[in-house]
Design brief:
The chain has a single domain, classed as Rossmann fold (3-Layer(aba) Sandwich). The mean pLDDT is about 85. It has a 5-stranded parallel β-sheet with strand order 3-2-1-4-5, sandwiched between helices. By secondary structure, it is of the alpha/beta class. It has 8 helices and 7 strands; from the N terminus they run βαβααβααβαβαββα. Helices cover about 45% and strands about 15% of the residues.
């Protein structure tokens, strides 16, 4: 269902989740822009992959291309200065004493949403769309629904304007996210996610798996792979016999 009165800004890293969110937004809003952040991430290859995803979506769906506006890339390298994590430095990925993987970048989503809201304010966009999820996730506290709702209140108060944060994947597991991509754009969108999006924390794009490119073992790859396998198994179970 489209909302012809509102304009959206999608936090778009070029991964499975943000690609699905971009398609979701393009189905609903008359004008959609994208923003990404360079924060010194090890998997910086995602910043190139995302441009390929945008081009592919436009080529496959002219109706989406007509609604897709500017892309923005913002420098948030301060995140790598204040947080020594396995996502911003060459360290082994492992669990910490607090129960979180050391890929957690403290304050990352909070800063992303704050800076995105400032950009949206200037661009006269009143919806932020993000792929945060607390169903299939690594336990990051800034992905939780309570965090996002609180951030929406803060942004509205701080900007003195209506600013809605939409998180269409919040209560979906990764298998359901694959299914959502199928519903939004059919096999073409699923193929775009598999072939062009990037999720792997190690930036690995040498090996292509059924679910896409990646090392296959980092937390991001593990979630994506497991979700794909559950989705494929569920789709096969729904096929008629014969």
């Amino acid at each position: 269902m489209q909302n012809h009165q509102r304009r959206a800004l999608v936090l778009f890293s070029g991964g499975q989740d943000s690609t699905t969110c971009l398609a979701w937004a393009l189905e609903r809003y008359a004008h959609v822009e994208t923003v990404a952040f360079d924060y010194g991430q090890r998997h910086r290859i995602e910043l190139d992959a995302r441009l390929n995803v945008r081009r592919e979506l436009c080529a496959r769906r002219p109706d989406w291309a007509a609604r897709l506006g500017e892309d923005h890339l913002l420098d948030l390298s301060v995140l790598s200065q204040v947080g020594d994590t396995a996502l911003t430095s060459d360290r082994q990925i492992e669990m910490q004493a607090n129960g979180l993987p050391n890929t957690f970048v403290p304050g990352r989503n909070l800063m992303f949403l704050t800076v995105a809201a400032a950009l949206a304010y200037r661009r006269q966009l009143d919806v932020l769309v993000g792929g945060m999820c607390e169903t299939d996730f690594s336990g990051y506290p800034d992905c939780r629904d309570d965090t996002i709702k609180a951030q929406q209140v803060v942004l509205g108060l701080g900007l003195a304007t209506r600013m809605t944060i939409e998180t269409p994947l919040m209560w979906l597991d990764k298998a359901q996210t694959w299914a959502l991509a199928q519903r939004l754009g059919g096999d073409a969108l699923v193929e775009t996610v598999v072939e062009h999006s990037h999720t792997c924390y190690l930036g690995e794009r040498g090996a292509r798996h059924d679910w896409g490119y990646g090392c296959g073992t980092c937390p991001a790859c593990a979630l994506r792979k497991a979700g794909w396998e559950r989705w494929v198994a569920g789709a096969a179970a729904d096929l008629p016999p014969g």
